[in-house]
Amino acid sequence: MKYQWAAGTHKGRVRNNNEDSFAPETSGRSTGPVVLMVADGMGGAIGGEIASQLAVEHASDGVGSPVERVIRANEAVVNRTLSEPGLAGMGTTLTLAEFGDDGAVNLAHVGDSRAYLLHQGLFEQLTDDHTVVAEQLAAGHISPADAVTHPQRSMLTRVLGISPDVEVDSITFDSTAGDRLLICSDGLTNMVEDERVAQLLAKGSPEEAVWALIEEANRAGGHDNITVVVVDVEQ
Q: What is the pLDDT of residues 139-156, one digit of tens each?
């Protein structure tokens, strides 16, 4: 199987710095295996930026399954906090996808960055948000309409860097030629509704889709950093 990807990031229209990180940082094409990821840092000031960079660096380096890569990233952020108490409280999301040469896609995920699949016109969110609101919604305590404007919609319940032990979600599926996968930070999904994301994702090359989505989030207000990775599955 062949894969073509593109990635981009923007600080948005409100934030002074960009706490998102991603890999690879350049467009490319490969027969696989290839690993792509997005991390959204938290912790304020420089802490969020450091956390996301550490996570991506250590998840990209070396070998291991997607879950092992995420665990390694968590250890790196925790150890940095222990060695520099001034960074206490920093953390990051991490959504990582490994594309195999046989078309298998293995995802590992912590936080509220997301992965989506566009397959034969159907748009599906593959990951679950690890947030207070997502858990309340799953339990039936609030409605989807309430979730959109809930004051705790961005409050994370699971993140890298806070504890030496972290639970990592794992998703595996077989891709087919024509599929398109999106990995993104919540700077996109908090600003642009899924229906509109699907419309823009379906158009153009991976590079064109990346920047169309980033521009749409900025047009909607750009309240957060926006990072987008788009991957095409080719024959």
A: 776 667 656 666 666 689
